[in-house]
Prior knowledge:
By secondary structure, the chain is α/β, with parallel strands linked by helices. The protein contains 26 helices and 26 strands. It folds into four domains: about 30-205 and about 390-400, Glycogen Phosphorylase B (Rossmann fold, 3-Layer(aba) Sandwich); about 210-370, Rossmann fold, CATH 3.40.50.2000; about 420-550 and about 730-744, 2-Layer Sandwich (Nucleotidyltransferase, domain 5); about 555-720, Nucleotidyltransferase, domain 5 (2-Layer Sandwich). A seven-stranded parallel beta sheet has the order 3-2-1-4-5-6-7, with helices on both faces. Strands 10-9-8-11-12-13 form a six-stranded parallel beta sheet, covered by helices on one side. Helix 24 (about 660-680) packs across helix 25. It starts with 5 loop residues before the first helix and ends in a 6-residue tail after the last helix. InterPro entries: ATPase_NBD, ROK, UDP-GlcNAc_Epase, UDP_GlcNAc_Epimerase_2_dom.
Amino acid sequence: PPPLSIQEVYFKNLSKQKQREVMEKNGNNQKLRVCVATCNRADYSKLAPIMFGIKAEPQFFELDVVVLGSHLIDDYGNTYRMIEQDDFDIHTRLHTIVRGEDEAAMVESVGLALVKLPDVLNRLKPDIVIVHGDRFDALALATSAALMNIRILHIEGGEVSGTIDDSIRHAITKLAHYHVCCTRSAEQHLIAMCEDHDRILLAGCPSYDKLLSAKNKDYMSVIRMWLGEDVKTRDYIVALQHPVTTDIKHSIKMFELTLDALISFNKRTLVLFPNVDAGDKEMVRVMRKKGIEHHPNFRAVKHVPFDQFIQLVAHAGCMIGNSSCGVREVGAFGTPVINLGTRQTGRETGENVLHVRDADTQDKILHALQLQFGKQYPCSKIYGDGNAVPRILKFLKSIDLKEPLQKKFCFPPVKDNISQDIDHILETQSALAVDLGGTNLRVAIVSMKGEIVKKYTQLNPKTYEDRLELILKMCVEAASEAVNVNCRILGVGISTGGRVNPREGIVLHSTKLIQEWSSVDLRTPISDALHLPVWVDNDGNCAALAERKFGHGKGVENFVTLITGTGIGGGIVHQHELIHGSSFCAAELGHIVVSLDGPECLCGSQGCIEAYASGIALQREAKKLHDEDLLLVEGMSMKNEEVVSAAHLIQAAKLGNTKADSILRTAGTALGLGVVNILHTVNPSLVILSGVLASHYVNAVKDVIHQQALSSVKSVDVVVSNLADPALLGAASLVLDYTTRRIY
């Protein structure tokens, strides 16, 4: 017979005196009838040490073993045999897996298990059912036991990973009466989920009892059996990757990239088949398409016994994939791990784990392999100290079957009469608006009615890192202040110069006014920091949205907004919707060319409206006049250190400077010609001039339209915006208009 494990020896040698003490303490001479249900190879590795412990104490416990799920499927190695090899009597075998390749197959499998389990539980009549983890099979088991008034002990509750497993795990937690968790964080999560602290045991992971006692001196025979005679320790890879059921298509693509990277890395690799999940068959097809089963560097297997698997990962050069085993058990040996994708996001890990969250290229995975392969890290005991099973058995013995079955929840204190609090009822729905200008960075809390409740202004930093850090800091500060001013923030809207992909929230490239602002993902870091939806758009488009919601454009089907400020921009609303264009370049109105030999524009072209009519263009002309002593007239004065600006040019024109007046008339004409081109192209019923220069240009624009436009468009209304801050209001409109819409 095989040698006894340390746990078996421990329980065999438990003194009769100790047993009597526990019996007397519990005041219960009745044996506890325990049903352990195992669904797959992974959960059996956690449940087996507990089963050995229960079996070794027949004076306290009666053990019934139920096997279901992928244990009974040939494609996954018929792993029920290892349970038989461990000398456990299997009371019931339940075929519960419905074959299929999509999410529906998992649902049908749960349904099939729910149909079959009641009969089994009726026959066994267990006092308690032990359920492990977060598999859909386990959810069916917990649901059945809860509805049949059978106590449930849940192993590994309170943990966080990052897929549908989280939802299943927490659902089982709410059904379970008792909880065995592995880490202090998991314990705190269970308490936060209102579970009774007295029914939570921080024991550690049962598999660690076996891991930390694994002293197989003949590990080389295990390695050679699975990987070949010529393989050395620390010179091979173990790969174990499962489909992510919330994003099957992406996870299959990631698996394909992983195999490509492993082929290129050119090391002997043991690849285990994935779990039974939606998408698993497609992953197997990918393996076969790549020829993995016949590749000289690869060994593809359906199952490896846990004792041998321990030896394989303990002496591997690296483990790669998205299995919880990689971030949990492998840390006990300090073996390097590459965790791919989001399946284990949120798990506590040791320093041996390198996360590749966005494993979207072969090169990225290959680089991770080069960084990790062959390293040796300190052993981690985050998930256990090797003494989980004795704690669990003691916990089981303490269960009083005379206690009421109905579980109690420990809810935290709630403020009295919150539903009658008038401030809570009248909380203002609002948006955080961010305006990224060439000079200033502004953040504001804007109400649904367009009221700027609170505004923050800072100089816009010159570097990407400083700018993003300041945006986050200002947004966090504003979001905190929103509570004090009784505003509920629905999301964040960002108005920025440059070309923007609003679907992805990315600044594709910016004007020269904002440095280091190309290919910038604004949505992700801000959304992650604030846990709010984020919208991003070009400042001209935001100005048009502001007019549509709060200004002259309200209720108008087709209109155009032109911003006249440091630069010239705008937005086009057609049939009540903003136009972005095929490459998000629509409404770059400042770069309509009105003269082939005009002044050079910042975009590199010549004769653009912006080169004539923007604040920068007027400043340029003002400097020329000033350098020639032709700017200042009677009634004007400038300090020595004062910078010449467009405002000085406008002041000079008002005071009778004919040259300044001529420059302004030329700028107004250029803007007017651009508007005529717009009228002939999109035929709006309204043109709104916005920005600090709008009032200086409106009459000139109307004159050019009267002189140059086709008669059919001369009746268009041209007005000056009455909005005090269109950039911030437009950014807020991104949120307030689209928060409740499904498509943007």
